[in-house]
Design brief:
- The complex is a heterodimer of chains A (about 775) and B (about 160).
- Chain A has about 775 residues and is α+β, with helices and mostly antiparallel strands.
- Chain A has 20 helices and 28 strands.
- In chain A, β22 and β23 form a beta hairpin.
- By secondary structure, chain B is α+β, with helices and mostly antiparallel strands.
- Helix content of chain B is about 35%, strand content about 15%.
- A five-stranded mixed sheet of chain B has the order 2-1-5-3-4, covered by helices on one side.
- In chain B, a hairpin with a 2-residue loop joins β1 and β2.
- The chains are: A alpha+beta (about 775), B alpha+beta (about 160).
- At the A-B interface, α1 and α18 of A face α1, α2, α3, α4 and α5 of B.
- Chain B: This is (2Fe-2S)-binding protein.
Chain lengths: ~775, ~160
């Protein structure tokens, strides 16, 4: 009797290496004759470079070379933006090393290559750069005024897009209720625990680049495009990668320059960032100003929603910078039905580090906006926040449902997830306690936050990406090969960096081929091994890449069936596949998949049209996005005297369809929820009035520790996806998307009796205390 | 250049080091002990935590010369006879790691906190690990793993 692997909480195959230090982080790797690269970075937010003198550095012991941006001007190309979201988008030239102008603090202006990293760092001090300061551009609204200094000659507007569906004017005309709010999505620093690192080597003709990247395949194409080195001469390897969260979904200046330095010097070079360098120069996340208007009937039913975003691009457009806010375009309407929707977004240049994908990318921002506004609607109508959502959400019997923004949600059950969450949370009891504390005037008030989210992930149907002007497809590739001894080697185009693909893909293959879980190995992250792939981001790996592996298994079985029929002298239709063997119906005759693998290896007696070796490959291009959903509830105790907010309990009921490995899913949700809470309570990238980043270290940028976070209570409902044969949905970003509004809604809920209806994130004790003080003083003035 | 003598994972090394060389760089770049990673430059993240003479220490905050004469145990030397330490096993069983970058330091810090309290409460564990950051797990399963590791280590002690 074979145990079903899909659905089992398998412990991970990845762990043993990671737990014993036998790791392959990029910074662990070396090559004979390795040199170390260090970059000199701009201390100015905006300046003209009038001179760079690297000669002082060149003379120091251990220094092999030193270069300015000018030294690479002819070959370094421009860092790519793959998502021109509008026809008239401004994509400024983005030299990997600045040549004539710097536009954010941290931009590379020169580099040193030395025999060890200490000497490389020392030599940076001997480089002289002359800057002619230019005005910093820091505030998006000011940046769009006509008298603002310009970040780029073409101006400070990167693009402006407006999307309409339904009659928005009619929806707002004579609407009984209009909610009008502006929210700030603060800038975040993704902070994967492994800093970025790049190692490049060449044999004089071809190049190998190891990088702490999420996207070895995309990176290879882009390196070829940017540098002109032919694509077939570049091999990219993502060895062990220590987290990404979108921050390693990038084509970076350092990757391009290390490749070019290896070419220039004919020697291997390595660069590893320090954390403070990383905080300055790993792309940031979020940073939006959201103006949201919602029109509703007096019973709470939504008539229309109008969203106007300003999205801070930073100084340049990087790989998917402009696409991030646009991913929110179809998500502000969320799980709700409405008659009209208008989405406008303007991308704005500032003299800050560019923004780009960070866990959720556009969907957390949208979910925050709508879920905050839904709470305001509930308050206006004196309805429970759950009830106002219930009156608007898509009912389970309405799926598949095409939303006002044009997406078709395939499956879901918001009622079931919400009911389960309410009961686990003890919602009514907590509301009673809240009322009691309010009545008593308890200095510690209780707030309850609701977040009923969905999101679009599993990027993505290639056709839809084409419609959205994205420069690549969204398919994924998998190969499955039975080895002569009956073991299975799987090659996936996804590039895991903590997600456990080796384990989950092994479970999928074990079920599909009827082989033991331990007999499967999974290779990834090397363009010479995984020859096709679109990598890992956007909660796509399982729902696109895992399905490609599953489909490759189906093809392997088709081939095995032909071979089995030939060997057993029967028709393929007489065979049934069971527990890893093809059996002739009604007899004992059978061939195991391992026997067939061996027969296909010897190839002594293959039927016509069947090639040697039992293997196959498949690409999968999904027909639709994946739409996980769920209900998150958060109880927060807010000390009104100190402003301290403490999460007392957190319940999440998520529906991600069928689950391959519940342990891994739980881990993804835990980590995702923690990151969303971190945005709500702790994290913010802060620039001063001159454009200096103040949060350059982990001492200044507050990542939550174990002591700052509560435990989470998780449960699931299961509405299988209809867009893939395993019924699975993405889960990598769901927790982050859901949790931020749950926490902030809870804090605001606690403070409502004191007249507070918003606290800007991160909701630090000081901000909460000031919000209370401001209302108290207003009250006193009245 | 000062010469130091240092024992790492049971092997004694004599090395000439620049006075400014950090212990973590000695481990990683001179001794090939790359199992101990570096996550920050302000001693906030704890990824580089090792045992220095039996107590946990952030090896980015110790100069190699300060470790002269010391006995260092890294994640690579924690297991015995090819089998993992009970705390490493507990991290595996409880799915307390994802990308694994913080894991060496987290395991070391976890073992260290049990020296003070062999049966820690959840709160003690959470505060005891305050100096070690993880971006993947939300800490839930790390807390579970430390509890399980503590129980298994307790059992191992009482059995011996």
């Amino acid at each position: 009797m074979t145990v079903q692997e899909i659905g089992r909480p398998r412990r991970r195959k990845e762990d043993a290496r990671l737990l014993t230090g036998r790791t392959q982080w990029t910074d662990n790797l070396s090559r004979p004759g390795l040199l170390y690269v260090a970059f000199l970075r701009s201390p100015m937010a905006h300046a003209r470079i009038t001179g760079v003198d690297v000669s002082g550095a060149r003379d120091l012991p251990g220094v092999v070379a030193a270069f300015s941006g000018q030294d690479f001007a002819a070959e370094q190309g421009s860092l790519p933006c793959a998502w021109p979201v509008s026809p008239d988008i401004v994509i400024p030239d983005h030299p990997p090393m600045a040549v004539s102008e710097v536009r954010y603090v941290g931009e590379a202006v020169a580099c040193v290559i030395a025999t060890d990293r200490y000497r490389a760092a020392d030599a940076l001090e001997a480089i002289e750069v002359d800057y002619e300061p230019l005005p910093a551009v820091l505030d998006m609204r000011q940046a769009l005024t006509s008298d603002s200094p310009k970040v780029h000659e073409a101006g400070n507007k990167a693009f402006s897009v407006k999307i309409n569906s339904g009659d928005i004017e009619a929806a707002f005309r004579d609407a009984p209720v209009v909610i009008d709010r502006t929210y700030v999505q603060q800038r975040l620093i993704p902070s994967a625990m492994e800093p970025r690192a790049v190692l490049a080597d060449t044999d004089g003709d071809a190049f190998t680049l190891w990088s702490a990247t999420q996207i070895p395949h995309v990176l290879r194409v882009m390196l070829a495009v940017v540098t002109g080195i032919p694509e077939h001469k570049i091999r990219v390897i993502a060895p062990d990668v220590g987290g990404g969260f979108g921050s390693k979904l990038q084509v970076t200046a350092e990757e391009v320059l290390c490749l070019l330095l290896a070419r220039r010097l004919g020697r291997p070079v390595k660069w590893t960032e320090s954390r403070s360098e990383g905080n300055l120069t790993v792309h940031h996340g979020r940073d939006q100003l959201q103006h949201i208007r919602l029109a509703a009937e007096s019973d709470g039913r939504i008539r229309g929603l109008q969203v106007d975003l300003l999205a801070d691009m930073g100084a340049y457009l990087m790989l998917v910078t402009p696409g991030v806010p646009m991913l929110g375009a179809a998500m502000f309407n969320a799980i709700y039905k409405m008659d009209a929707y208008e989405f406008g977004c303007t991308g704005v240049f500032t003299t800050k580090m560019p923004t780009d994908a960070y866990r959720g990318a556009g969907r957390p921002e949208a979910t925050f906006g709508i879920e905050r506004v839904m709470d305001e609607l509930a308050v206006r109508l004196d309805l429970d926040p759950v009830e106002v959502r219930r009156r608007n959400w898509i009912r389970h019997d309405e799926f598949p449902y095409t939303t006002i923004s044009g997406l078709t949600y395939d499956s879901g059950n918001y009622e079931a997830a919400t009911d389960k969450a309410l009961s686990l949370f003890g919602y009514d009891k907590l509301r009673a306690e809240q009322a009691d504390r309010r009545d008593r005037g308890d200095p510690v008030q209780l707030g309850i936050g609701v977040s009923t989210y969905t999101e679009m992930c599993g990027l993505a149907p290639s056709r839809m990406l084409g419609e959205a002007s994205y420069a690549a497809g969204g398919w994924e590739h998998g190969s499955v090969r039975m080895l002569p001894t009956g073991k299975v080697e799987v090659i996936t185009g996804t590039s895991p960096h903590g997600q456990g693909h080796v384990t989950s893909w092994s479970q999928i293959v074990a079920d599909a081929l009827g082989v033991p879980f331990d007999d499967v190995t999974v290779l990834h992250g090397d363009t010479a091994i995984a020859h096709k792939g679109m990598d890992t981001y956007g909660s796509r790996s399982l729902v696109v890449g895992g399905i490609a592996v599953f489909k490759a298994c189906e093809k392997v079985k088709d081939k095995a069936r032909k071979l089995a029929a030939h060997m057993l002298e029967c028709s393929p239709d007489d065979l049934e596949f069971q527990a890893g063997a093809f059996k002739v119906r009604g007899t004992d005759a059978q061939k195991t998949i391992q026997e067939l693998a061996y027969a296909a290896f010897t190839a002594h007696d293959l039927p016509d049209g069947v090639e040697a070796r039992l293997d196959s490959e498949a690409t999968f291009d999904p027909e639709n996005y994946s739409f996980p959903h769920g209900t998150h509830l958060c109880a927060v105790e807010v000390d009104t005297e100190t402003g301290m907010a403490k999460i007392r309990s957190y319940v999440a009921v998520d529906d991600i369809g069928k689950v391959v490995n519940p342990l891994i899913v739980e881990g993804q949700l835990h980590g995702g929820i923690a990151q969303g809470i971190a945005q709500a309570l702790f994290e913010e990238a802060v620039y001063d009035a001159e454009g200096n980043l103040l949060t350059t270290t982990m001492a200044d940028y507050l990542l939550p520790s174990a002591a700052d976070l509560p435990g989470f209570t998780l449960d699931r409902t299961e509405s299988p996806a209809t867009s893939n044969p395993l019924g699975v949905k993405g889960v990598g970003e769901a927790g982050t998307i859901a949790s931020t509004p749950a926490v902030v809604n809870a804090i605001v809920d606690a403070l409502r009796p004191r007249g507070v209806n918003d606290v800007q994130m991160p909701c630090t004790p000081e901000r909460i205390w000031r919000a209370l003080e401001d209302r108290a003083q207003e009250g006193a003035r009245r | 250049m000062p010469r130091i003598t240092i024992t790492v994972d049971g092997t004694t090394y004599e090395e000439d080091v620049e006075p400014r060389l950090l212990l973590v760089h000695l481990l990683r770049e001179r001794l090939g002990k790359t199992g101990t990673p570096i996550g920050c430059d302000t001693s906030n993240c704890g990824a580089c935590t090792v045992m220095l003479d039996g107590k946990s220490a952030k090896s980015c905050s110790v100069l190699a010369v300060q470790a002269d004469g010391s006995d260092v145990v890294t994640i690579e030397g924690l297991g015995t006879n090819g089998s993992m330490h009970p705390m490493q096993r507990a991290f595996h069983e409880e799915h307390a790691l994802q990308c694994g970058y913080c894991t060496p330091g987290m395991v070391m810090a976890a073992i260290d906190l049990l020296r003070d309290d062999p049966e820690p409460s959840e709160e003690t564990i959470r505060h005891g690990l305050e100096g070690n950051l993880c971006r993947c797990t939300g800490y839930c399963n790390i807390v579970r793993a430390v509890r399980r590791g503590a129980q298994d280590m307790g059992r191992a002690v009482s059995a011996s």
